[in-house]
Amino acid sequence: MRELIYYIAASIDGYIADPTGGFDAFLVEGDHASVVFGEYADALPGHAHAALGIEPPKTRFDTVIMGWNTLAPALEIGITSPYPHLKQIVASRHSRAVDPAITLTDDPLALVRSLKREDGLDIWLCGGGELAGTLLPEIDRLVLKRNPVVFGSGIDMFGNTPYKPRTFTLTRTRSFDSGVVIEEYTCRSGALLP
Ligand SMILES: NC(=O)c1ccc[n+]([C@@H]2O[C@H](COP(=O)([O-])OP(=O)(O)OC[C@H]3O[C@@H](n4cnc5c(N)ncnc54)[C@H](OP(=O)(O)O)[C@@H]3O)[C@@H](O)[C@H]2O)c1
What pLDDT does residue 1 have? Predict the structure, then answer.
């Protein structure tokens, strides 16, 4: 069955963006980029593929889901369909005018459950933290690009989701000279603690 994979950059202390939504403190360059631009090239935006002169491989993901606050910065710079090579789903509780390539949903949990029953490649949970908090029960795998920086405060990886431990198993760790560590965790089935 296809999986929901939360693939993100994070600080040591678990933030995915600074308090204003920026991520300048994350390392773009370095040897970890081989994974970002290789294995996870499907998670690059269309304008990055164009700038790099590469085609999206379409082997890792065929769908992306993101919260409205994650799409909004792209809209502000005129990018209305950031991942045109993927089926793009955006969660919002409001009626929004969006590019025809984007599917809006006010029930991302139900939609993801339905998508997981369909055939296809894995679904990339792009973020942000609030949406990830909603989708936590359906996350099958976490892939964290852990950057060697402590933010102190910022946007939390799972927003303000209530305390409800869900156990994951560390399945792979890759350390890079850049200081980035890519950690992969798989959800232990039925691992919701009481
Ligand atoms: N480090 C990384 O790899 C990474 C990746 C992605 C994003 N980010 C960062 O994360 C930040 C955004 O995160 P965030 O936590 O503020 O926001 P978010 O999860 O991206 O978006 C929150 C919005 O999404 C909608 N939403 C969320 N949960 C929903 C639900 N259960 N049902 C319906 N709609 C729902 C709502 O939109 P409405 O207000 O329209 O109702 C909500 O206000 C940005 O700064 C972005 O740069 C970082």
Answer: 86
pLDDT tens digits along 87-124: 999 999 999 999 999 999 999 999 999 999 999 999 99
Domain boundaries, the chain: 4-16+25-172
Mutate-to-test residue for ligand 1 from 75, 90, 92, 125, highest number of ligand atoms within 8 A of CB: 92
Q: Which CATH number is 4-16+25-172's, of 3.40.50.720, 3.90.190.20, 3.40.430.10, 3.40.630.30?
A: 3.40.430.10
CB within 8 Å of 61: residues ≥ 6 apart: 5, 42, 43, 86, 121, 122, 123, 124
Of 15, 16, 147, the residue with max ligand 1 atoms within 8 A of its CB, to mutate for a pocket test, comes to: 16
Q: Give the binding-site residues of ligand 1, using a 6 Å CB cut-off.
A: 8-9, 16-17, 21, 23, 66-70, 91-94, 106, 108, 126-131, 134, 155, 159
| 105 Cα nearest atom in ligand 1 | 33
Bond into 30 cis (ω within 30): no
